[in-house]
Amino acid sequence: MLCWNRWSATFSDDGRKWISGMVIIDASNTSDDNVYYYSFCGNDSTRGAADMNENVELPSLPLVYWRLLKPRVVMLLQITAVCGVVAYNLLNENIVDKDDIIRVIKQSLVVLIGGTLTGGGAGTINMWYERDLDNKMSRTDKRPIPMGHISPEHALTFGIFCVSLGSVILWKYGSIEAGAIAALSAIFYVLIYTVWLKPRTAQNIVIGGAAGSTPPLIGWAVAGGTVTDLIPWLMFVIIFLWTPPHFWALSLLKVDEYRKVGLPMLPVVKGEEYTRNSIVAYSTILLLCTVILGYQGGLGRLYLIMATVLGGYFVYVSNRLRREPTSENTFRVFRYSINYLALIFPAIVIDLYV
């Protein structure tokens, strides 16, 4: 009898063993408590400690892959990519009948699948590169590699495969522009942000944020647009200016951990007060730019009202954090920043529709 997806780890003399691969158990001559397990050894640079010969049940491989993709983070950005698809079709009056709706749905699925693979794959490579740091921080030590659910080499291979497959999907079923933007964004995120900027400068997230700002450009290109159009760049600027205050709020919540591992995040290098002032500055610039670019991009009154209200509240919670620097107010900024991004992009689409 063959049993699938039954996982276990038998740890070696140093107390560490990596688990990877799809499990096929030949249990034809064994009882339930005497099953042969399949696993691979790997290096011991990250956690996975257990007593020697201890059996440890682990998640199924598909679940490990899913966690490596960080779906909650990636899907937030894919919302902006889908909005890029819909915005292009609305602006060019390409949605007039049932067939058009089906086409837009197909384009959106291409963006969701391709974007999730490229974005999640880049994030997986990031986790492979930072596996030693992840093991030392409570925010990241439950990720699959530090937990010993997958070997670093296996995760790296999976990440490269996802970036490659996602870029090909966006190129073949979207456009060459979409595939190229996705591939270059992944390369920028891994090489420029992860390897170069993050360990060297407190402005890492400001510059590196460009990589995470491209989903609307990808969605626009999949729908048939070009990167010379203004609306997708408005969307790009929104994410680019949104990224620093979002991640600075997170770094304020985890400043001690960043300091412990030696990452030069803004509150570690410049101090927490400076970081709070920077959050206020960026949220204010974000408000002004979304309104000004809305006028320049030909968006209507509904968008301008939504941009003013959403951006105004972002400035309000940021100022409240500056005046009352508590963990609760810091988390409020972090949480609202997510809601802001999830609302401002649909506001663009709704404005174009009405």
Question: What would you say this structure looks like, in words?
Answer:
The chain is mainly alpha-helical and 354 residues long. It folds into 2 domains: 1-58, no CATH class; 61-353, Orthogonal Bundle (Farnesyl Diphosphate Synthase), CATH 1.10.600. Helices cover 66% and strands 2% of the residues. It has 14 helices and 2 strands. Strands 1-2 form a two-stranded antiparallel ribbon. The protein is globular and about 55 Å long.
The 3D shape can be described as: globular
Assembly classification? single chain
The poorly predicted ranges are 1-54
Quickly name the level 1 CATH class of the largest domain.
Answer: Mainly Alpha
Round the mean pLDDT to the nearest integer and report it.
87
Termini separation: 60 Å
User: Based on helices, strands and strand pairing, what is the structural class?
Assistant: mainly alpha
Question: Number of folding domains?
Answer: 2
Beta-strand content estimate = under 5%
- Under the CATH scheme, which architecture of the largest domain would be assigned? Orthogonal Bundle
Biggest β-sheet, characterized? 2 strands, antiparallel
Helical segment count:
14
Give the CATH topology of the largest domain: Farnesyl Diphosphate Synthase
The number of E-state strands comes to 2
Spatially, the strands of the biggest sheet line up as: 1-2
Order of secondary-structure elements: EEHHHHHHHHHHHHHH
Helix share, percent: 55-70%
Radius of gyration computed on alpha carbons: 23 Å
